[in-house]
Specification:
CATH topology: TIM Barrel
Number of helices: 8
Helix content: 40-55%
Distance between the termini: 51 Å
CATH class: Alpha Beta
Number of domains: 1
Strand content: 5-15%
Shape: globular
CATH superfamily: Glycoside hydrolase/deacetylase
Structural class: alpha/beta
Number of strands: 8
Radius of gyration: 19 Å
Largest sheet: 6 strands, parallel
CATH architecture: Alpha-Beta Barrel
Length: 241
């Protein structure tokens, strides 16, 4: 009986590993289709999570405006209610706005009812602020399960993940380190003939007012570097939908 028991344990371990990969890996499609990036390595998407946030979101808008670059902001509903004027500024500048839930929970651990409530409340906050519907969402931490994606799609929200991680949430990280993380990710995707969907943060789920100046500076440096590359095109996930 020992061998069958060990075999069962091994199968369970493998199954748990596959489930963890499907739930957490940003590029996994095992739990359902998500938007990541296209096949043109010259297409770069700047995506910012966890805002709106003072004053970093406005500083980013200024940086983006100087280079005439359009980005995507996945916003948290409770922060939208605190700063609806900032969301209106994002929309007025022509950037794409997406749903990042009401309170930023781990949706893998939430009931279906809670998932739906989180997405609906964030949708409502966004639509009340800018008077326009929302078509895209991003799961907090990237965690999802099949029900998460089904509920999002039932609400007309296309799930968006990423394939470049800037790690700008790490304590004490510098603008140079953030930029290096982005550059390595872009280089990796270029070799694979993929566009780059870059995960950044203009805020934090932990607290409103989190300092993200290093992110702002890294974005400024990236845009200045890319401005000399005539083939680079900054896009939003809409082009890959």
């Amino acid at each position: 009986m020992l061998v069958p028991a060990l075999t069962a344990a091994g199968v369970a371990t493998v199954a748990a590993g596959v489930a963890s990969y499907a739930a957490a890996c940003p590029t996994s499609q095992l739990f359902g289709s998500t938007i990541i990036a296209g096949s043109n390595p010259n297409q770069l998407a700047l995506t910012f999570d966890d805002g709106p946030n003072d004053p970093e979101t406005q500083l980013l808008l200024d940086v983006l405006a100087r280079q005439k670059v359009r980005a995507t902001f996945f916003v948290v509903g409770r922060y939208v209610r605190q700063r609806p004027q900032t969301l209106r500024a994002i929309a007025a500048a022509g950037h794409l706005i997406g749903n990042h839930t009401e309170t930023h929970p781990n949706l893998f651990l939430c009931s279906s009812a809670r998932i739906r409530e989180e997405l609906i409340r964030c949708n409502t906050a966004i639509e009340d602020a800018i008077g326009a519907p929302v078509s895209f969402m991003r799961c907090p931490f990237g965690y999802r399960r099949p029900a998460t994606l089904r509920i999002a799609l039932s609400l007309g929200l296309a799930p968006v993940m990423w394939n470049v991680t800037a790690y700008d949430w790490q304590q004490g990280i510098t603008a140079a380190q953030i930029l290096s993380n982005i550059q390595r990710g872009i280089a990796r995707n270029t070799i694979r003939f993929r566009g780059s969907n870059i995960l950044l943060h203009d805020g934090s789920h932990r607290a409103f007012g989190t300092n993200r100046r290093a992110t702002v500076e890294a974005v400024r440096l990236l845009l200045e570097q890319q401005s000399s590359n005539t083939e680079t095109r900054f896009v939003t996930p809409q082009v890959w939908a």
